């Protein structure tokens, strides 16, 4: 089984390199994919990635596990929902599953819309109902350390500076783990890595072969 990593808005697959290295060190096969997150909306990002994901699944010889940071988790939801046989599980790290008040605010400014592209509108709190929910097992990891002060007045409750713990939840039976870190590097926190490894251990059948991918 192969673990596929998807980065967040405005990032590249390099942002997932440390997590990828830790998963490989634990014996998992890992692929990290890039996509034009600032040029396309969520559904279009998923469509862009679909051929690459299909090729990885073919190499895996079965289902894969999707791990997405922030917007990458929403793109992964699109991918997994479109093909119920694709994913054995989905881990979302700092993903605004119920939208983000930060996206609400930034999207009111022309510069914000120009900088982050059409996907920004898909991250608003009023867009959450348009994002499909897959049937596979899911795990949510949410940050609670807000190092980005700009949005604090707009985001209630514990949050990572961009996404609140409450809005990271889907409320469909997924596991939820709060991690004391900020949004940008949440995927590198030891507790977040541990949460991913716990999910993988639960979803990958005992005795399933794992190998290194360099």
Which features does this protein show?
6 strands; 8 helices; 6-stranded parallel β-sheet; 214 residues; Rossmann fold; alpha/beta
Can you give a write-up of this model?
This protein is α/β, with parallel strands linked by helices and 214 residues long. It has a single domain (2-203), classed as Alpha/Beta hydrolase fold, catalytic domain (Rossmann fold), CATH 3.40.50. Helices cover 35% and strands 16% of the residues. The protein contains 8 helices and 6 strands, in the order βαβαβαβαααβαβα. A 6-stranded parallel β-sheet has the order 2-1-3-4-5-6, sandwiched between helices. Helix 2 packs across helix 3 (71-82). The longest helix is centred in the first third of the chain and has 19 residues, at 42-60. The protein is globular, with a radius of gyration of 16 Å. The model has no long low-confidence stretch (mean pLDDT 94).
């Amino acid at each position: 089984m192969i673990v596929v990593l998807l980065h967040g808005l405005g990032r590249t697959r390099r942002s997932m390199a440390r997590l990828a290295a830790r998963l490989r060190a634990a014996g998992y096969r890992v692929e990290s994919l890039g996509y034009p997150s600032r040029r396309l909306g969520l559904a279009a990002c998923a469509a862009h990635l679909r051929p690459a994901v299909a090729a990885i699944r073919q190499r895996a010889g079965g289902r894969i596990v999707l791990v997405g940071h922030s917007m990458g988790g929403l793109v992964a939801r699109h991918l997994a929902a479109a093909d119920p046989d694709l994913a054995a599980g989905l881990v979302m790290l700092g993903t605004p599953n119920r939208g983000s008040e930060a996206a609400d605010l930034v999207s009111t400014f022309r510069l914000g819309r120009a900088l982050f592209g059409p996907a920004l509108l898909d991250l608003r709190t009023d867009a959450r109902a348009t994002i499909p929910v897959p049937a596979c097992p899911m795990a949510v990891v949410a940050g609670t350390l807000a190092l980005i002060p700009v949005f604090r007045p707009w985001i209630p409750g514990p949050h990572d500076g961009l996404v609140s713990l409450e809005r990271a939840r889907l409320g469909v039976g997924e596991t939820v783990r709060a991690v004391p870190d900020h949004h940008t590097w949440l995927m590198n926190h030891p507790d977040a890595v541990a949460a991913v490894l716990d999910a993988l251990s639960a979803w990958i059948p005992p005795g399933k072969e794992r190998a290194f991918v360099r």
